[in-house]
Amino acid sequence: MRPVRLIALAATLVPLAAPALAEFRRITEEQAYVAAVAGRLVVSPAASMRIRRDWTYSGRLADGSPVSGAWTWDSGYFCFNERGNRSRTFCQVIYLDARRLLIVPDRGRGEAFLAEIR
Known about the structure:
Elements: H1 2-22, E1 25-26, H2 30-37, E2 41-43, E3 47-51, E4 56-61, E5 66-74, E6 77-82, E7 85-96, E8 100-104, H3 105-108, E9 113-117
């Protein structure tokens, strides 16, 4: 009986999520990511950052403190290190629509959030 309830719940939720996700396509290649964001400002609730073609980024966190570091593309993930903290690399799945990114931290296992491309 439990699997039937889960399937019914899933069938109810999928139509709610599908229209929003249908607008986004996953970026799997570095070239597509660079074409979409290089030199532009990426603004999310957590930070505003400029991503550069030379594999660096800089900007400000929501609290106003500066942030900068290096980024790379690794097997379909946007990965970055904060300057001074090269021991930890953060990797994200990136989806794109016309002017927004849907970013999913922790290699797609984290809580997704939206960022605007300006």
